[in-house]
Amino acid sequence: MKILAIESSCDETAAAVISDSKVLSNVISSQHFHGKYGGVIPELASRAHLDYISKVVHDALEIAKLNIHDIQALAVTIEPGLIGSLIVGSNFAKGLSLRYNLPIVPINHLDGHLYSGNIQDKTVEFPYVALVVSGGHTILFLVESYSSYKILGFTVDDAAGEAFDKIGTMLGLQYPAGPEIDMLAKKGNPKAYDFPRAMLHSGDYNFSFSGLKTSVRYFLNKNFPDGLSENQLPDLCASVQEAIVDVLVKKSIDASVEYNVKHLIIAGGVSSNSLLRERASKLAKLEGIKVVTLDPEYCIDNAAMIGFIAEKKLLENGTEKYNDLTFTANPGSLRAKSIKNKVD
Questions:
Q1: Which residues of 243-279 are buried (b: 16+ CB within 10 A; e: fewer)?
Q2: Same domain, 82 and 128
Q3: What pLDDT digit, counting tens, does each position of 21-44 carry?
Q4: What SS3 state is found at 177?
Q5: Separation of alpha carbons 266 and 139, rounded Å
Q6: Could you tell me if 182 and 83 lie in one domain?
Q7: How many domains does the chain fold into?
Q8: pLDDT at 333
Q9: For residue 120, which of 18, 36, 258, 290 sits 20 to 30 Å off, Cα-Cα?
């Protein structure tokens, strides 16, 4: 079965073609212009999706050396994300479904990240622990199969990627700040400044990063009231990064040990952080756990991961279930308050 997948949950317009769990194409158009605003502007993001989605889909088919008549099913992200962006992708997919009489699988964006490690490493075994860490989410999952998983913990306030970006703004770095903090940190001393590791020993798998942001703000106001010089950035970046990575790694490995899994998958935009990859891999190896880190194209929002899990759903449920086009886009994200009852 050949599946055309579309992803437009935030500021990447993406399309991919999946066949027998293989990625035939994975096209991503990133909206870099948001950097000058210090964050993603929802209305501008949805307009950009409208401008690029047709070409991205065309390119995905062309790279896969297929046309739309070769496609047997569609997949599209419908939640969570920016509502305007989600609507562009879901409506475009519905249009293709109606025009070419194709079933369409609505996918939760987080499901895509959860299983993205399985695309890259075919040796991954269930159950495994997955850390999905990005600008919008920081969540630990126990993944039991392609249709079953449990939430072990989540951020009670800000996501790790959000903390990187907002602290980066305080440091005068351009959005998104995560990659630049990672780069500068390589030149700095991670022990130069001692920032808090919130909930490091909380006894659960929840996270909190808002306190770190506040601590950095007060620290800068007290110690650098006239602003930072360029040579002061590396130590600050290294110290901030160390504080975030310490918590992410400890909780991820503790969960992996508790649930006796062989694999830990780290996914989402922040999974490209070099210290997170290095530290998690090194410490997990001591416990006999293999860490699966992803190629850059699978770390950021992409459609290959959406098509991959859609294929599993089609194989399990058949195509008839996915002829219903009444599904709607949902912007809601997973945070402590929004899923507490669901977890309980």
A1: bbbbbbbbbbbbbbeeeebebbbbbbbbbbbebbbeb
A2: no
A3: 999 999 999 998 888 878 889 899
A4: coil
A5: 10
A6: no
A7: 2
A8: 60
A9: 258
Q: Which two tokens stand for residue 92?
A: 């475009």
Q: pLDDT tens across 135-144, in order?
A: 989 999 999 9
What is the phi/psi pair of residue 312, to 5°? -65, -40
- Output the pLDDT for position 34: 87
Do 93 and 129 belong to one domain? Answer: no
User: Is 125 found in the same domain as 246?
Assistant: yes
What is the distance in angstroms between the CA of the first residue and the CA of the last residue of the chain? Answer: 38
For residue 339, pLDDT beyond 50: no
Residues 6+ apart with CB under 8 A from 261: 127, 128, 129, 142, 289
Contacts of residue 223, Cβ cutoff 8 Å, sequence gap at least 6: none
The CA–CA distances, whole Å, from 167 to 126, 163, 171 equal 36, 6, 6
Domain that holds residue 322: 2-113+301-332
Q: What is the pLDDT of residue 326?
A: 95
Are residues 78 and 156 located together in one domain of the fold?
Answer: no
| One domain, residues 109 and 196 | no
Reading the block at residue 210, the tokens are 């808002």
**Cβ contact 191:199 at 8 Å:** no
Closest Cα to residue 116, out of 30, 21, 202?
21
CA dist 294 and 190 (Å) reads 25
Separation CA 194–CA 213 (nearest Å): 13
Strands (E), 159-262: none
Could you identify the residue written with the tokens 């390119």?
59
CATH number assigned to the domain comprising residue 11:
3.30.420.40
Dihedral sign from CA coordinates of 86, 334, 250, 254: negative
Are residue 108 and residue 153 in the same domain, yes or no?
A: no
Q: Does position 340 have pLDDT exceeding 60, yes or no?
A: no
